[in-house]
Amino acid sequence: MKVLLIEDEPKMARSLKKGLEEHQIDVDAALNGPEGYQLATENEYAVIISDIVMPEMDGIELLRRLRAMGNRTPVILLTALGQTDDKVIGFEAGADDYLTKPFEFKELLMRIRALARRPVETYQSTPSLHFADLEMNLETKEFSRDGQKIALTPREFALMEYLLRNPGRVISKNEISERVWNLHFDTGTNVIEVYVNFLRKKIEKGFSQKLIHTQFKNGYILREEEV
Q1: How many CB atoms within 10 Å of residue 52?
Q2: Fold identical between 2-117 and 128-222?
Q3: Which pTM was predicted?
């Protein structure tokens, strides 16, 4: 397995590179955004690990550029910020996972291996999904309620799609984290609650019937009526 490490702190970069190579992982290392971006566009990697705060080009901008050019390599963002807003911004830019500094090396190793071997989600081919007055077109990426188009971000769209594929079933936060976004659920963050609230505001504003319900301590369920 070959990974790209983009970290502007030389000491940390050397330490992580050494640790990964001791676990039979080949590592290309870059100390700034532009250098990392160049390596990412010229080579193929199983996973890219990038710090967020870096000189010249930060990790978010680097990630946005890679996704804009069609690069789908899994990306783990490293951040010392640890704020929900920063994680949301990273996810919207196309991040697959994140770790907040300081972190245990074995945790990084586990995340790398999980992303490198994650299965591609296979769903039965269908052009659209429906529930109540909701409709999602998987080909055009359009979503509407009662004929009214609603703009969703990529991460909101992925969450809504999973709910539409599992109506009437309680879906835990852990399941959403792992099955929808391919992450390991972090009990110390409220990112999932944030996105569920984003969806609720978009699909329930102006409608009397609520569709996304919370099951206390269990998760969320898509249904027409409250039990």
Answers
A1: 24
A2: no
A3: 0.58
Q: Which of 24, 129, 20, 125 is nearest to 76 (CA)?
A: 20
How would CATH label the architecture of 128-222? Orthogonal Bundle (1.10)
Q: How do the domains of the chain map onto residue ranges?
A: 2-117, 128-222
In contact, 112 and 85? CB cutoff 8 Å: no
Q: H-helix or E-strand containing 26?
A: strand 26-30
Q: Looking at the DSSP assignment, which residues form a beta bridge with residue 67?
A: none
Rounded CA separation 225/210 (Å) = 7
Count how many Cα atoms sit within 13 Å of the Cα of residue 12 in the half-sphere of its side chain.
17
May I ask the CATH architecture of the domain 2-117?
3-Layer(aba) Sandwich (3.40)
CB count, 10 Å around CB of 102? Answer: 7
Q: Map residue 171 onto helix, strand or coil.
A: strand
pLDDT per position as a tens digit, 74-112 = 999 998 765 666 778 888 888 888 888 888 999 999 999
Higher pLDDT, 189 or 210: 210
Q: How far apart are CA 129 and CA 165, in angstroms?
A: 7
Look up residue 178 and give its two tokens. 């792992």
pLDDT of 226 higher than 60: no
pLDDT digits over 175-193, tens only? 888 777 766 656 557 888 8
* Long-range pairs of 209-214 with CB within 8 A, sequence gap ≥ 24: 209/132, 211/131, 211/132, 211/134, 212/163
